[in-house]
Amino acid sequence: MTLRHFLRDDDITAAEQRQVLALAALLKRDRRAHQPLAGPRSVAVVFEKQSTRTRLSFDVGIAELGGHPVTIDAQGSHLSRGETVADTARVLSRYVDAIVIRTYGDDRIRELAAAASVPVVNALTDGFHPCQLLADLLTVDEHLGGAAGKILTYVGDGANNMAHSYLLAGALAGAHVRVAAPEGYHPDPAIVADAEALAATTGGSVSIGVDPHGAAEGAHVLTTDAWVSMGQGDAEIREKDLTPYRIDAALLAGTDPGSIVLHCLPAHRGEEITDEVMDGPRSAVFDQAENRLHAQKALLTWLLDPTVRANP
Ligand code: CP
Ligand code: NVA
């Protein structure tokens, strides 16, 4: 079976994204429907940054697939003492069937994947959070019947992992992705160009601007993320710059009447999103959090089960 990694949202095709989401929906209906990791096969889940949802959803999901999760932190391993990610990948590849890692720079996960002989999955880097986007798109499928042709609006820090993943995964899904962020917080132009190229093939589109109310107008999905991501400083400046991009009732009022609000969590209530919206009727954030489990089980199945990947 060809070795595939999932380091960025566009490491899978539009058809493959649909296949993973359909499998996720099936596994959600019957959590023990498929146990491709029975044996058990093992998956290493490595954290160089904090996590609640990703840690728990991979641990539980791998076990539900019949496999054995082995979760380690940088601090408890030699990663924090300077052992290279390439050497770590060579060693882990001798023990496990896949490596899931949350780390800092994307160069770090690319270096790890290049040395690994098993699939590597990005559980969040500075640049992308592709597993989160699979869960977000599953949530959009459930609430809105699919992302194709829908307007997905992201407001806030447009230069972070979530904004970049929205651009790529949203474009792949055929959505119209709008990002509203202040100057200095705009997405990486190379990623915008990649998203535009994808959108041209799927019927989606991409737009980047500074006006949150304009971007929210008529949106089917309104989303945001932390103003200060893990590993970032300058909290005071960032909070001041990003305050106009908070999701509150006034911003939500301009969206489509059937819109939903997403947030990858953890939320900083009162900063990027108000309590009123988080706890309001349009919020799908806890469905979204649950869907991490189902989406990641589908992804691991797709990466590791040759019968599934060969039969879209
Ligand atoms: N959304 C998300 O990745 O949450 P954690 O940081 O808790 O894993
Ligand atoms: N952008 C956030 C996402 C947390 C899940 C961060 O990287 O900290």
General description of the model:
By secondary structure, this protein is an alpha/beta fold. The chain has 13 helices and 9 strands. The protein has helices at residues 14-29, 53-64, 85-95, 106-115, 130-144, 161-172, 189-202, 212-216, 235-242, 249-253, 275-278, 285-304, 306-310, and strands at 42-47, 68-73, 98-102, 120-122, 151-155, 176-180, 205-209, 221-224, 260-263. The strands form 2 sheets. The chain has a 5-stranded parallel sheet. Helix 6 (161-172) links the parallel strand 5 and strand 6 (176-180). The relative contact order is 0.16. Phosphoric acid mono(formamide)ester binds at residues 51-54, 124, 132, 264-266. Phosphoric acid mono(formamide)ester (CP) binds at residues 51-54, 124, 132, 264-266.
The overall pLDDT average reads 97
- Quaternary state reads single chain
Our estimate of the beta-strand percent is 5-15%
Low-confidence stretches: none
Work out the helix count.
13
**Terminal Cα separation, in Å?**
15 Å
State the shape.
globular
Total E-strand runs: 9
Bound ligands: phosphoric acid mono(formamide)ester, norvaline
Structural class: alpha/beta
Order of helices and strands: HEHEHEHEHEHEHEHEHHEHHH
Strand order of the largest sheet: 7-6-5-8-9
Rg, rounded, reads: 19 Å
Approximately how much helix is present in the residues? 40-55%
Largest sheet: 5 strands, parallel
EC number: 2.1.3.3
Domain Aspartate/ornithine carbamoyltransferase carbamoyl-P binding: 4-142
Organism: Actinorhabdospora filicis
Pathway: Amino-acid biosynthesis; L-arginine biosynthesis; L-arginine from L-ornithine and carbamoyl phosphate: step 1/3
